[in-house]
Design goal:
This is Molybdopterin-dependent oxidoreductase. With 719 residues, this protein is α/β, with parallel strands linked by helices. It contains 25 helices and 29 strands. Strands 5-4-19-18-17-6-7 form a seven-stranded mixed β-sheet, sandwiched between helices. Bound molecules: ligand MGD and iron/sulfur cluster. Residues 14, 16-17, 19-21, 47-48, 50-51, 180-182 line the site of iron/sulfur cluster.
Length: 719
Amino acid sequence: VDEGPVKSWHKSVCRYCGTGCGVMLGMNKDKLVRVRGDQEAHNKGVICIKGSMLDSLMKDPNRLKTPKIKKDGKFVEASWEEAMSLMTSKFKEALNDHGPESIGFYGSGQLLIEESYTANKLFKAGFSSNNVDGNPRLCMASAAVGYTQTFGKDEPPGAYEDIDHAETFFLIGSNAYECHPPLWERIMLRKKANKNVKIIVVDPRKTKTAEHADIFLPVLPGKDMLLLNSMCSVMSELELLDDDFIAKHVSFNDGNKKISLEEYKKFLKDYRPEKVADELGITPREIREVAYQFAKSKATMSLWTMGINQRVQGVFLNNTLNSLHLITGQICRPGATPLSLTGQSNACGGVRDTGSLAHLLPNGRLVANGTHRQEMEKLWKVPEGTIAPKPGRHALAMFDGMVKDVVKTALIMCTNPAQSLPNNRYYREGMEKAFLVVAEIFEDTETAKFADVLLPAALYIEKEGVYGQTERRYQIIEKLRDPVGEARSDFDILVDFANRMGQGNLITYKTPNECWDEYRNISKASKYDFSGITYDRLKKERGIQWPCPSEDHPGTVRRYIKGDPFADKHVNANHKVHFYGKPDGRAVVFARPYKAGVEDVSEDKPLFLTTGRVISQWHTGTMTYRISELKHSAGPGRFVFHPQDAGLNNVKKGDKIEVESSRGKMQGIVDISDHETPGVVFGAFYDAKFLVNNVVSDDHDPISKEPDYKVTAIKVKKV
Ligand code: MGD
Ligand code: SF4
């Protein structure tokens, strides 16, 4: 439908992924009619196919427009008054009868910062319930814990700008070509501009990213710890360590206590390439080559995402990636840095920075730390002892609590766990049992089906607030039109809910801007200080990177060096780096052993199943799978085999098969592609008719509690 010419252009941010692309939105009155990349933003005008079709999303006629309440198994329209009263009475009932641990909030890295901040404050300081978690647990938790353990602070030291300076790119567990296309384009531009640039890709799949690599290491799923430790061991053996950097800025730890450099080197001996290469499925020579390139390059940048985070050893992998940079001094210089790419638009700013996970409090504080609780109680002006000392339930534990009838009532916002959680059938039992309030933009999502109360949410430019992406950059989305029907922003829903629950004295702000001002002032009391980032500035500038302690501060591109307000007073010509997250100013290199996964192939289950995204689809497809061009581009969900495995299993394209894992069975259709590697079957999770998470294991990292979506052992049979 042609909705007419553009009458005005507005700068905004794409709502989908953590690249956080700046977009220009062409409006005709209240209609979004054109989208293009913002030339002045960090992405320099480049956007991907999903972002370029944001106008189609906003045009969708099938939005949820009124609240609904489930009666006798069917949804019936209700007024906001009826829906909110029922929600309030159910939460009050659970709190009175069963206490704070019987309620929960399950949020999203796509909610605005003001929304996650409000939910977190309301539940932790209003209801004394730490059962606040969300989908970033499935996505970024291992990276967040990894940074915190290594540097003492979450969020990366470097930035996208480092891409323009790097000489070696080490991409591990990242399919940037499909999942962060503008960043991939920036890497390719850098390669074109400098003939010395080398791209190393480590991935069990021969992805489009891998196709462009100078060196591609197709390691077997679940084994990367062997590779990273082996690279460290080569660096140690060949004396590629940066002794000066180590002496000034690094300490070593075995997970329990400090150890010496010599002890660390001894630990690495078990990982000599000759000892581990076979198990990795590559050669010792390849490991040596990659280690040498990493250490000797003028500037090495590591980029990773879910292939590393969504793993039972996710935290150890993150620690060790950081360690590779620390022992070689490939850090805190332009182009030399670790940079974990974020999955969602606001997982960093919205959830990690606001502390909206079960074990966190705002700006890097921990629930389990008494001083941190007291600090937040003071800042939030609630009596000492209000915040419960025990971390709440992480994502899987929250839904497990529903299965076990311990979590009785929950609010789910901006996420679709009935499709996105692993071992899906099990957690759906919990969704069936608990009283669920679901705020959604569409009625037909898998999770909406389990709602007892369904609330219509405003989408994207129907509301206002801030997103914070991968590189600590905060950017604003301005409201450009009213919500459809009776929809309300998640922020308005939360503020209304707070008032109805008698928490009007806690949630005193009424607008996102007032909420932002409270939060940015609170940030002053931390090393995240972004008090200088006002709505006014965000409306004029193309995002600002924190720390940013005053309104005339330009923001901080790289942390821990000159220019970072918290490092400034500690650095000088002789001592250029200061890791202020640690009391001794030293980042920690951990000796982290490899542990064989529970999910390994065997005679009974001879194939690995790995899962993830495709370029044209966003997560569970609720928004992108209804846009015909994007749906057509992705096609229906399939089990994708390498031709060799297809032959061995006697299946061909289009065949119906049954896949069985330790978690259950499901049927699906076969596709064949030589982008897969022998032994590995791929399944994307965007298609609700192909619920791959029915067979994906819910084993998770014991520290970050992030599930391992990447390694499930399966067997297949034709049906
Ligand atoms: P989304 O599709 O992003 O998936 O999983 P989910 O968060 O469950 O869900 C967002 C929902 O919010 C949609 O239903 C959308 O319609 C709704 N929505 C959109 N805008 C708004 C709004 O403004 N307000 C409200 N209230 N609702 C809105 C993502 C999760 O999936 C993540 S983060 C990861 S990293 C995991 N990855 C993964 C994987 O790699 N493999 C497999 N097999 N499963 C995975 N699941 C995880
Ligand atoms: Fe949007 Fe991500 Fe695509 Fe950029 S890369 S346009 S942020 S989906």
